[in-house]
Automatic annotation (TrEMBL):
It comes from the Bacteria. Gene3D superfamilies: Periplasmic binding protein-like II. InterPro entries: Bact_solute-bd_prot1 (IPR050490), SBP (IPR006059). This is Alpha-glucoside transport system substrate-binding protein. Signal peptide: none annotated. Belongs to the bacterial solute-binding protein 1 family.
Length: 435
């Protein structure tokens, strides 16, 4: 990690120093270093689920904060189950100073446990100045602001290889039926496997469900199901599972068949499309761009994407994201949050790729390619039909825990999608248990 820090300071730190120090702009938007003095000798810990390219890029942003303030920031990867990692840390009284929570539901749970410190000073000011009401409310509990959406994710995208589409004579589809009956079927008949699946990472399967459900059932029902105001045995859930089976019940549509679909994690599924070229498409969010580039693809050329196709009248737009919160009152914690909430820090990350911001002050020109620039506008200009990732809003033991709840039940459904009604009953039972 030390070696990486030295490399980072030669790139992002220099850029951020020009933006922040030369321009006289502190992390929270005030004059000089946040809090009126430097942070030399201060050591901070940040925990997040990011690994690989995402971790590398985030560490470059942290290196810029170190360069500006003199603080030392160490990064701790939490693994996929952020709650399982943080729980024992909180119990032992040794939480990280800043944690990146992938679920608003988890933020609400920790706030109820008094495990979070509200945003203060420059951090609170940066949230107020740089984010719209929707995003501010997302990180608040009972009117108290705790979190800053640092990294947004556009989760209604299907990535593909244009060369595979051209060879099969197909075009990006507009509807679910077109994707299944024309695009996937034609690719399969031509000898190209349509989809790489990321089924070993259960959260990717909840993304499939949420996109189909939002487009099929509509925003109002989506909200009702999220709040458990309607049961998971509702016909709309069963019909969504039946729709998913159009793909999940076709072993020839998935790289490695059913067994391969369940055993392949994210980001290995991306390399199956853009590295080994074992499949033509992979469904996941905008952050696939960084993994595709790592596999040797060029985003916008041999790595392209189309919107998740409409199942009902309108195509879905589902967003997710990672929310930065303070878990200690240690010196430098609020200053780091203020920095992370700044347009300067987020513009640095935007230029590295695989990133989207909900910060209204981040210009589209900060992104490295035209495709991501366009996606950034859809996040900022989202209409009333856009919805936040459902599994991240429900209690984490139901929506975001490995081996439990939605993750496990949808993995079982991927293995055998023959009984949607029974799967809906399992989802309802798990939702009740988590209430």
């Amino acid at each position: 990690m030390a070696e990486h820090r030295r490399r980072a300071r030669g790139t992002a730190a220099a850029a951020a120093a020009g933006l922040l120090v030369v321009a006289g702009c502190a992390p929270g938007g005030g004059e000089g270093p946040a809090g009126g003095g430097d942070l030399a000798g201060v050591q901070l810990k940040v925990a997040a689920k990011w690994t690989g390219v995402e971790q590398d890029n985030f560490e470059e942003v942290l290196a810029a904060f170190e360069e500006q303030t003199g603080a030392t920031v160490s990064y701790e990867p939490t693994g996929e189950d952020t709650g399982a990692y943080l729980g024992p840390k909180i119990e032992a009284g040794e939480p990280p100073d800043v944690a990146l929570l992938p679920q608003p539901g988890l933020l609400a749970e920790y706030a109820a446990q008094d495990a979070l410190v509200p945003l203060e000073g420059d951090a609170a000011a940066a949230l107020e100045e740089n984010y719209t009401d929707y995003w501010r409310e997302l990180g608040s509990v009972d009117g108290e602001a705790y979190g800053i959406l640092l990294k947004a994710a556009h989760k209604s995208i299907v990535w593909y290889r244009p060369d595979a589409f051209d060879a099969a004579g197909v075009q990006p589809p507009n509807t679910w039926d077109d994707m299944v009956d024309t695009t996937a079927s034609t690719l399969s008949d031509s000898g190209t496997v349509p989809f790489a699946m990321c089924g070993a990472s259960g959260w990717t399967l909840t993304d499939w469900f949420e996109n189909v459900y939002l487009s099929h059932a509509g925003p109002e029902k989506y909200d009702q199901l999220t709040a458990h105001e309607i049961p998971w045995t509702d016909d709309s859930v069963v019909q969504t599972l039946e729709t998913l089976a159009d793909v999940w019940d076709e072993p020839d549509f998935m790289a490695g068949g059913t067994d391969g679909a369940v055993q392949t994690d994210f980001p290995t599924c991306v390399s199956q499309v853009y590295g080994q070229q074992d499949a033509a498409m992979v469904f996941e969010a905008d952050f696939v761009a960084a993994n595709a580039a790592e596999a040797g693809a060029t985003v916008g050329e041999d790595a392209q994407a189309f919107p998740f196709p409409a199942v009902g009248e309108e195509p879905p737009v589902v967003v997710g994201g990672d929310i930065a919160v303070a878990m200690s009152e240690n010196e430098g914690t609020q200053e780091l949050l203020a920095f992370l909430a700044s347009a300067e820090a987020q513009s640095t990350w935007a230029g590295l790729g695989g990133y989207l911001s909900a910060n209204s002050q981040v210009e589209s020109s900060a992104y490295a390619d035209e495709f991501t620039q366009q996606l950034s506008q859809t996040i900022l200009e989202a209409g009333d039909s856009v919805r936040y990732d459902m599994s991240d809003q429900v209690p984490s033991q139901f929506g975001a825990t490995e081996g439990r709840g939605m993750w496990s039940i949808l993995q079982d459904f991927l293995r055998d999608p023959s009984d949607p009604e029974a799967t809906a009953e399992d989802l309802e039972a798990a939702a009740k248990d988590a209430s």
